[in-house]
Amino acid sequence: MGRKEISTELKKLSGTLRKDRIKNGVQFDLISEVPEPENFLPASAKKIFKNFAQMLIDKRMLYNSDLHLLAIMAEEMNTYIIACKKLKTATSYVVKLKGGYTQQSPWLGIRNQAQGNVRAIGSSFGLDPLSRSKFGGEKKEDIKENPFTNL
Questions:
Q1: pLDDT score for 138
Q2: Could you tell me what percent of the chain has a pLDDT over 70?
Q3: DSSP letters along the chain, please?
């Protein structure tokens, strides 16, 4: 699994920061206002898009390169909600075929697939506890001010 990565800020504070240890990566523009959702999204998915976008903007985690993933996640969440509505009653989990046979409702598979897709895309944004712990390194209260910085 490997060793947990140390943030650049902590490396600065401990005096071990070197140029070869800095990871710059590709930089994109941070979004500060909720953008208009894609036209192909249905109205209910557009609301979900705006809610997720505002949540990510508030945490300063939404970049212009992420909008396509956010649109997909909103569409998948909308599909999940529709499938859950179709599966309201216990009898809706099973469908009877013309020949008298019964089988699992297709909405169950649709719901489960959409749920998996939302979880996978959401982890890219840090929307679950495990992936959230990988974003941003230490909390601000964990980093103590170096008393020798101002000397």
A1: 42
A2: 87
A3: --PPPPPHHHHHHHT---GGG-------PBP-SPPPPPTTS-HHHHHHHHHHHHHHHHTT--BGGGHHHHHHHHHHHHHHHHHHHHT-SGGGGEEE-TTS-EEE-HHHHHHHHHHHHHHHHHHHTT-SHHHHHHSSSS-GGGSPPPTTTT-
